[in-house]
Amino acid sequence: MTELKPLVIGDLVVEKPVIQGGMGVGISLHRLAGAVAKAGGAGIISSAQIGFREPDFQKNVVEANLRAIGREMKLAREIAPEGVIGFNIMVATRRYDLWVKEAVKSGADIIISGAGLPVTLPEHVEAAYHEMEREPKRRVKLAPIVSSAKSAMVICKMWDRKFHVAPDLVVVEGPLAGGHLGFSREQLSEYGADTTDVPATYDRETFDKEVRGIIQVVKEYGAKYRCHIPVVTAGGIYTHEDVLHQFGLGAEGVQVGTRFVTTEECDASQAYKEAYIKASKEDIVVTKSPVGMPGRAILNPFLSRIKNGNRPSIKACYQCLEKCDIKTIPYCITTALVNAAIGDVDNALLFCGSNAFRTKKIETVDNVIKELMGELV
């Protein structure tokens, strides 16, 4: 029988080897991250437009987001003083360096970074420590998100050459994940997970082989730096059996998003949670985000209008994504995701994982983690 041991990341120990996926805008903030950390997992706050509730957000986006990073971490720590809490920070966002540095200064235990290759992450972390003018009791752990052995090799090689470091943890995000995906439509098709994307069409064996390849790459760099670098897998993990499968491949933990959306503690609006519960298998689709990246979401009136060429009015630019032209984008992704967070679901982009249609009720974080660990009879 596969034993589910604590996830050990250097001197950081996650008693229950479950990392809650960072979900933005406003889906995983202090309430969810704090609850997951308190239950023994790793709670992750999404930095994406984290300050959207600040009164000056529209006029002072950067300042509002920086304030919110510190505030959300402080509030999460109050829920779980001894828990493992960190941030998910997307490479594709503008001012990426500022969000990373503020997360370090806030006392984050770990930074998970994807939506692009986080080649400069170690540099920004070191800059933050320099600005703090003091060495922390425990250095923040750095975890790039990869989707292939090739991308894992690129990250490890560049960090080794430029910064003489290796990742502390590697997160492998598969093609069944939610939100922005680290795959082109062509790659998704290779794994049987394109727009007809439900678990029944997923070629798990093909991606399992990729996961094993990534683990081998990571082992090589762990050996070079005389350290152990654990690998955590993400995407489509919903049950205890799914967790056991990932551990059987050699993973030492799992990252889970969808299961935590429909919890009492999730920071999302009740309407957003209900959208998951009401969704059918056919409602889960892969769409194109305003910057051209594939993303998985629930089909709703908003997506239907976008598909038919109905472009909503864009009144302001929130400086969110690096490669975004307000003149040509089909809609503002910040507005669409904020609408989701506050409950205006008919005018929202409802990001989700491939298993969102399987959610049937509102649960608690504690029960979700226990079920994933096989602790509920």
From TrEMBL:
CDD domains: NPD_like. The keyword Cell inner membrane does not apply. InterPro entries: Aldolase_TIM, NMO. It holds the Pfam family NMO. Gene3D superfamilies: Aldolase class I. The keyword Acetylation does not apply. One of its GO terms (molecular function) is nitronate monooxygenase activity. Keywords: Flavoprotein, FMN, Monooxygenase, Oxidoreductase. Nitronate monooxygenase that uses molecular oxygen to catalyze the oxidative denitrification of alkyl nitronates. Acts on propionate 3-nitronate (P3N), the presumed physiological substrate. Probably functions in the detoxification of P3N, a metabolic poison produced by plants and fungi as a defense mechanism. PANTHER family: 2-NITROPROPANE DIOXYGENASE (PTHR32332). This is Probable nitronate monooxygenase. It comes from Clostridium porci.
